[in-house]
Amino acid sequence: MTAATDTSTVPEKVTDARKAGNWLMIACIIVLCAWVLLPIYLLLVNALSAPNEVTAFPKNMIPSFDFGSLSFFLNFQGVAKALWNSVLVALLTMILSIGIGAPAGYALSRFDFPGKEAFRFLVLMTRAFPLPLLALPLAVLFIRTGLDDTAFGLAIVHTTLSLPFAVLITFSLFSGIPVELEEAAWTLGCNRWQAFQKVIMPLALPGIAASAVFAFTISWNEVFAAAVLTIENRTLTAFLLQSINVSPLYLKFAGGAALVVPALIFIFAVRKYLFAMWGIANR
Fold first, then answer.
1. Which residues of 14-51 are buried (b: 16+ CB within 10 A; e: fewer)?
2. Per-residue pLDDT for the chain (283 aa), expressed as one digit of tens each?
């Protein structure tokens, strides 16, 4: 009788353990979502509140939708130009990273050559050098070549920061696409470029888009190189570091919102490619 009772309680214990695991997973998801979304929400609440409401206590968690702070910040001298410079540099970084990283990732996944593994390791090790260590030689080199204080010069630096990730992401992406698909296209009369364009590219597009988003985000948020290598053509992050660090609190929130919202809009615009990369249905 006791043995039968113990046997019958085993499925119940397993079910309870699964329920506990599910509740733990749900709790972790809620905590992670709060960790990511709560700061953004508080930033938007303060950016969309009147200046006197930002420092008021107790804090109202619902914004009054007062656009005075944002309007003053956006009309501040130099903000529009800095915002355009950020967009331009981020787009150039994205194009350069994908234009160089995707072919490199394809070559690593499809061809065998001496030193292939060492090359992959060296690509990753380029991120081991801290940017402040390279600031002085970069500044001297850019001044000599005329690339200082230009969007293209800054985009080159940002490309070097995002390129290792672009190479490794696209390498993993192309490695997951069977080479037999290309071989089948070759037998049907396609050359290597046509097979890549018509067969591989549609399958790899979501991953390439994810790599492009990663490059855009790195460039948009980078501040050190932008502050060191630019003077007149500063990006928004460098402009905020230079001009808004002693500004009132409500203007700092407005500047933070102006920095965060465009990146969120861009990621939202390409979300279907990110979802497709992880096999999530488009919505």
1. eeeeeeeeeeeeeeeeeeeeeeeeeeeeebbbbbbbeb
2. 455 555 556 566 667 777 777 888 899 999 998 898 888 888 888 888 877 777 777 777 777 777 777 787 777 777 888 889 998 999 999 999 999 988 888 888 888 878 777 877 777 777 777 777 777 888 888 888 888 888 898 999 899 888 888 888 888 888 888 888 888 888 888 888 888 888 888 888 878 888 888 888 888 888 888 888 888 888 888 888 777 667 777 778 888 888 888 778 877 776 666 665 554 444 4
